[in-house]
């Protein structure tokens, strides 16, 4: 399940990057701008793509942290339950 989410997020990120690059190429081909204006536009698009990539990475990292913390809490709860049950069993055996 987690691998499916990872694959989905990875595909979404790759798709976003490819879409941004295709958009930049199309803009270059159809934009009636001077060279410096085109370079400025490309720089802006590159920054936008980099910002989107960074944002998606931060979201993925945040989801990973949440999943990690949730799993650690579940493990801790299970550990406490095992210790409690073991104590009960040991007490019964002594009695």
What keywords describe this structure?
single chain; 95 residues; mainly alpha; 0% strand; rod-shaped
Q: Helix count?
A: 2
The share of residues in helices is over 70%
Largest sheet: none
Whole-number total of structural domains? 1
Structural class: mainly alpha
Radius of gyration: 26 Å
> What is the percentage of strand-forming residues?
under 5%
Apparent shape: rod-shaped
**What's the end-to-end separation, in Å?**
46 Å
- Please report the total strand number as a whole number: 0
**Uncertain stretches:** none
Helices and strands, in order, run as HH
Q: What does the average pLDDT come to?
A: 86
Account of the protein in words:
The chain is mainly alpha-helical. It has one domain. The chain is built from two helices and no strands. The chain is rod-shaped and about 90 Å long. The two termini are about 45 Å apart. The relative contact order is 0.08. The mean pLDDT is about 85.
């Amino acid at each position: 399940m987690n691998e499916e989410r990872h694959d989905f997020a990875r595909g979404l990120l790759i798709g976003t990057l490819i879409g941004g690059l295709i958009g930049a190429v199309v803009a270059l081909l159809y934009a009636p701008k001077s060279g410096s204006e085109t370079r400025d536009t490309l720089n802006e698009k590159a920054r936008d793509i980099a910002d989107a990539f960074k944002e998606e990475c931060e979201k993925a990292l945040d989801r990973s942290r949440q999943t990690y913390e949730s799993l650690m809490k579940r493990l801790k709860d299970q550990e406490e339950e095992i210790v409690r049950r073991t104590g009960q069993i040991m007490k019964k055996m002594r009695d």
